[in-house]
Amino acid sequence: MIFKQLRKNIDVKDDVFNELYPDRIKAVSSRHWTPVAIARLASEYLVDKPGKKVLDIGAGAGKFCLVGAVSTNGFFYGVEQRASLTKLSKKIADRNNITNAEFINSNINEISFCDYEAFYFFNSFFENIDTSFPIDNTIYPDRELYDVYSEYVKGELDKTPIGTRLVTYWSKWDEIPGSFDLVDSDCNGLLSFWQKVH
Fold first, then answer.
1. Which of 29, 98, 140, 150 could bridge across to 174 with cysteines, CB 3.0–4.6 Å?
2. How far apart are CA 155 and CA 26, in angstroms?
3. Residues ≥6 apart with Cβ < 8 Å to 132
4. Strand, coil or helix: what is 12?
5. 153 vs 147, more confident
6. CB of 57 within 8 A of CB of 79?
7. What secondary structure does DSSP assign to 130-180, as a single string?
8. Of all helices (H) and strands (E), which one includes residue 55?
9. CATH top-level class for 2-196?
10. CA distance 136 to 172
């Protein structure tokens, strides 16, 4: 029902969408998963032509990819280091016949950005420097990892072709190379729309 509504461009509230998840995932939703309205705005900007391949850098429970996949005609790929979250995302996609979302259990620095055409980033590395509200206890926070992952993303984005689109949400902009320009913003500056210009 939720995905049918999204396909018909009907708004879905986050507390309704989050019923798809077990309680432990629902409990961290407001802090760690992209709100439905933000996911729709971001995916509409990223998918500027049919079949666009969008990479979600740190997909968590897959919410951005699931919403984007049913709201647009793009293909969404979520990379996530927690195998349990990747498995859960795949299960929801399969159960709801969402064939244009795929979930990859991997660290971001093992992913080549040249396989994708647009990118979404909801500060997934921040859990390494802000330990006040962890997703779970399976990942040990490491300040160095924040820097390593941010530098990797920055380097990979810098290699993308001119015109590449990027959306960031709650980002400190540490991962954005100088080759990208800010095109627009929303949500009091928390949601930023970027494009590679050189």
1. 150
2. 33
3. none
4. coil
5. 153
6. yes
7. --SS-S-SSS---HHHHHHHHHHHHHHHHTSPTT-EEEEES--STT--TTE
8. strand 53-57
9. alpha beta
10. 23
Segment 153-159 mean pLDDT: 98
Residue found by looking up tokens 């998918």 in the block: 47
Average pLDDT over residues 40-45: 98
Quick one: pLDDT at residue 1?
Answer: 87
Query: 3-state class of 168 per DSSP?
Result: strand
CA distance 165 to 124: 18
Q: Is 104 helix (H, G, I), strand (E, B) or coil?
A: strand
Domain locations in the chain as residue ranges? 2-196
> How far apart are the C-alpha atoms of 198 and 62, rounded to whole Å?
31
Backbone angles phi, psi at 82, to 5 degrees: -90, 115
Residue whose C-alpha is closest to residue 38's, from 196, 141, 191: 191
For residues 66-87, give the mean pLDDT. Answer: 97
